[in-house]
Specification:
By secondary structure, the chain is of the alpha/beta class. It contains seven helices and five strands.
């Protein structure tokens, strides 16, 4: 069984924050919408965080998602860029959690793999596959929006935890029972 309901995908950024919304029912994904929150005109980095928070609340209150899926920050050579990206991601996560929307985070490679079958796919390949998978006819405003849709698609494709193991399997007792040779009991 796959996830059912409305999924808000987020591609976090401090200049552009992409979002994409899909609905999943009966194992089928349906495109709802996508867009970008632009912050290039806002010079103060803290005002940008405030703007992200306001826009996240708008999205959450408009679409009432059952889940939010967000892309994890990608580490590059510039640590400062990653820290700024982490702030934007944190604000988006805090907004979702304040509305009691569960959040899942996915690495960029996992998102690309889920959508294209290749963890090293280009942004163009991701955009083309997302449009095909979701039958999107409109031209996206940017690849940040299609990246956000890709995160939502990735989340929709993940099996529910209860499909893999019983709920009690996360306990120490279940581990001991399932791995008797790995645990030394005294």
């Amino acid at each position: 069984m796959k996830r059912e309901g409305t999924i808000l995908g987020i591609d976090p950024g401090t200049r552009f924050l992409g979002y994409g919304i899909i609905r999943v029912a009966g194992g089928r994904m349906e495109y709802v919408g996508m867009g970008v929150v632009k912050m290039t005109a806002i010079a103060d980095p803290y005002r940008r965080m405030s703007h992200i928070l306001e826009k996240m609340y708008e999205l959450l209150d408009t679409y009432h998602p059952d889940f939010m899926a967000i892309e994890a920050p990608f580490y590059s050579k510039n640590v400062q860029s990653m820290l700024k990206l982490g702030r934007a991601q944190g604000v988006a996560i805090a907004a979702a959690l304040s509305r009691n929307v569960p959040v899942c985070e996915y690495a960029p490679r996992k998102v690309k793999m889920a959508v294209t079958g290749r963890g090293a796919a280009s942004k163009d390949q991701v955009a083309a596959m997302v449009k095909t998978i979701l039958n999107v006819t409109e031209e996206p405003v940017s690849q940040d929006a299609t990246d956000a849709l890709a995160v939502a698609v990735c989340h929709a494709q993940q099996p529910l935890l209860s499909d893999k193991t019983p709920a009690s399997s996360g306990s120490w007792e279940a581990y001991v029972k399932n791995n008797p040779r790995k645990v030394v009991q005294k």
